[in-house]
Amino acid sequence: MGRVIDDSLRETELGLRPAEWNVRPLGDLAEKPQYGLTASAIGTKVGPQFLRITDIQDNGVNWSSVPYCECSDADYQKCRLRRNDLVVARIGATTGKSYLITDPPDAVFASYLIRIRTNNGLLAEFLDQFMKSEDYWRQIDAAKGGRLKQGVSIPVLQGLQLPIPPLSEQKAIAQMLRTVQRAKEATEKVIAASRQLKQSLMRHLFTYGPVPFDQADKVALKETKVGEMPEDWDVVPLNSIATLASGGTPSKQRPEFWIGTIPWVSPKDMKTPRLWEAEDHISEEGLKDGSRLVPPGSLFVVVRGMILAKDLPIALAMVPMAFNQDMKAILPNQQRVSSEYLLYALVHHKPVLLPEIGTSAHGTRRIGTSAIERFPVPMPSKPEQETITDALAALDHKLEKEEARHQALTILFTTLLHHLMTGKVRVV
Questions:
Q1: Which of 224, 289, 311, 342 is the most buried (most CB within 10 A)?
Q2: Helix extents (H) in 131-227
Q3: How many Cβ atoms are within 10 Å of 92's Cβ, its own excluded?
Q4: Considering all CA atoms of the chain, what is the largest pairwise distance in Å, rounded to the nearest integer?
Q5: In 3-state terms, what secondary structure has residue 114?
Q6: What are the strands, taking DSSP E only, across 341-399?
């Protein structure tokens, strides 16, 4: 059980824990884990639903998309899922990932999953939360040994060391963590709904202009290279309303170039539509050595790199920024087009540019400068640009608030999980 350090702490296989907690292997606190059923997934209802590794996502299981399978009565009785069963991925990229069955339909589980059923000394809800902790993943990673194909087995799971508080404390820990988890999930749903709404609103605004939805059928439209749009809008090449600029990288051999306050943007920073910061910073001397500074309101587009195999990142600089040679900066003529409007127009009509992405002789993905310069930009009047921008910016502001809330809840959950599972914070 480990050496008692003082009246409140005990030294255990998992480190210091409260003296009244036990540390025991999972095999002592659960029925023998069980491998799932080997069968073929079928789209039509020929038997029970067939839960597979791929059906388990970060936000749970969408049972409406889980397929079915044929199985004998014996296999059905053996592999049927019940409330408070835990299933664990035993192989592949998600090895060790677990899911607590809370309200199962008529379903069985597949062979790449292992089922765990707890006994009276261990609450399934507590085990579910432990399986998100550092102590759990440290043991799983050690068992995998860096080899995904090795995966985890029933003996590995049975040997997992768990901290075991009294049942009342297990329940309180699980409830506290689940409360934060539910708040995270609710925020995720709001974010997903807001993103869908933004896509719908962008389609409407760039097709019919800033008119109410119920008046869209009154707008006269014309067909263009970027789809239908109001008849009175112009379509112009990007280089007629903006100039393109190239960036560069200061010498990596000069450390003093990389100690400064100027944000230096590279493709790895292009994760959000608006950039206030960058991972790297350069000095004034570094800027003069080979990079370039552009003002707020400039747009960045990645023109070279493997990220182009998945997407064409575009972002707006919110502060003065330097940038590297794998990107182009777009400097709008503010008399003709606002930076914010151009950001939304480029993002919405990005599919027009995607076919222009090719592969260089070295295998790297790239897009030519001329393709960007020729990009056809829809041009409503400046007042219409402002109305479109205001509508979309308001939705972006809501998204940013929800994403910040989600990030805060994620940090809170991770911190609470560590403190509660190590006994640094006690709940009863």
A1: 342
A2: 134-144, 154-158, 167-208
A3: 13
A4: 81
A5: strand
A6: 358-359, 365-366, 376-379
Question: What's the whole-model pTM score?
Answer: 0.82
In which residue ranges of the chain is CATH 3.90.220.20 found?
A: 25-164, 194-403
- The correct answer on CATH 3.90.220.20 for the domain covering 194-403 is yes
Q: CA 266 → CA 120, 296, 321, distances in Å?
A: 54, 16, 11
Q: Tokens for 337, please give them.
A: 């087009």
Distance in angstroms (rounded) separating the CA atoms of residues 184 and 416: 14
Instruction: Tell me which residue of 219, 225, 190, 224 sits closest to 205, measured CA to CA.
Output: 219
- The H-or-E segment that residue 284 falls in is helix 284-290
CATH class for the domain made up of 25-164: alpha beta
Q: Are the CB atoms for 32 and 44 separated by under 8 Å? A: no
pLDDT in tens, 309-329: 999 999 999 999 999 999 999
- The rounded distance, in Å, linking the Cα atoms of 406 and 191 is 9
Q: Which of 122, 118, 52, 42 is nearest to 89 (CA)?
A: 52
Segment 51-84, tens digit of pLDDT: 999 999 877 899 999 999 999 999 999 999 999 9
**Cβ-defined contacts of 125-128 (< 8 Å, 24+):** 125/84, 125/100, 125/170, 125/171, 125/174, 125/175, 125/178, 126/165, 126/170, 126/171, 126/173, 126/174, 127/26, 127/30, 127/86, 127/162, 128/86, 128/98, 128/100, 128/174
Classified as helix, coil or strand, 81 is coil
The token pair at 232 is 């009175």
- The rounded distance, in Å, linking the Cα atoms of 425 and 418 is 9
CA distance 298 to 290: 19
Give the integer Cα–Cα distance in Å for 9 and 209.
Answer: 67
